[in-house]
Amino acid sequence: MKLLSRTQRPASAFTLVELLVVIAIIGVLVALLLPAVQSAREAARRMSCGANIKQLTLGLLSYHDAHDQFPIGVYGAENDKERKHEDGLGWASRILPQLEAQAIFNNLKNNGIAGYDGNPWKPGIFRAAHAAGRRPLPGGDAELAMFRCPSADLPTHVPDADPILGAGPFATSGYAVSHYKGSRGYCDLGMFWRVQEGLKSGTCYQDITGDGVIDVTVKDPDLRRIRIVDVTDGTSNTIAVGEAAYVPSFEAFPMWLGSWREDGTTLFKTQDPVNCNIGGAGYPLTENDVLRLPGGSGTDDCTFSWHPAGVHFGFVDGSVRFLSEELEVRTFLLLGNRIDGEVIGQLN
């Protein structure tokens, strides 16, 4: 009998059982590693998001240094009976030079629209641009990185038509979407408001001290600008900006440039829970998400992030904090109020 030489012997191979075992081991390793990889990616995105808000708060402080005041939330009409009282550029448009976006600022300012060329911070600019066929305004469609959180997954621009009603295009269709908004606080005692609301007198009722007794605060109708000296609670205790990356209605699609019909496009309030009881990140919101919104589907005043369990906020002093969605609403309300006089303890 002729024996096979070493080189002539059949090559060994995996059996089917061995192959299945190897595949199973690889599957287990992937299952173990994938959450860690996803967690690391989200940590990086979260850090980048916080850096964006830091840039916005520093831009606001730089604007204050140059103009001795913070910008107004929305430059709409003084009379709330006019349709233009919520139609105007927003706070973010004012700080573009401080955000190293001077070219966009110049294009926005020199827009070529009759009545607004050279000074776009007048009421009614979005409707005027739409009517003149100049939508979007020059620069208004720019995707600026400092207004976009890497974790959020919204359209880059306001769509041309409402996906539910099918109508459109609207006065803000084509404008760049933002994932951050400015804080109105509660009862317009925050850092930003519309012109009409800033000039309006009124009385605010809230339990500031937490003793169960309603406290009364009278608004100052002559306060036409907000300066650091007007933040009597301290700049480290007052929210300036935060994440609000959700779409409660087509009219309130979040964008950095301003507001044409609902100031919720660029402003939020601190009167509802952080993350607003929405079950999870998503666009568009599910029917259950809409039902959980305080006040119904039209609620455009909430803060909301795509990060797990909380939201980034930028404070007037330039600091950034990640506040838990479990934060007591009263504490959140006080953080949005610049003049309540209460001392805030350790924040989670």
UniProtKB/TrEMBL annotation:
Domain (DUF1559) spans 38-328
What top-level branch of life does the organism fall under?
Answer: Bacteria
- Keyword Transmembrane helix listed: yes
Keywords, comma-separated and alphabetical: Membrane, Transmembrane, Transmembrane helix
Where are the membrane-spanning stretches? 12-37
UniProt keyword annotation of Transmembrane helix present: yes
- Coiled-coil blocks: none
Q: Name one Pfam family in it.
A: N_methyl
Tell me which InterPro entries the record gives: DUF1559 (IPR011453), N_methyl_site (IPR012902), Pilin-like (IPR045584), Pre_pil_HX9DG_C (IPR027558)
PANTHER family on file: GENERAL SECRETION PATHWAY PROTEIN G (PTHR30093), TYPE II SECRETION SYSTEM PROTEIN H (PTHR30093:SF2)
- What is the protein name given in its UniProt record? DUF1559 domain-containing protein
Q: Which organism is it from?
A: Lacipirellula limnantheis
Taxonomic placement: Bacteria, Pseudomonadati, Planctomycetota, Planctomycetia, Pirellulales
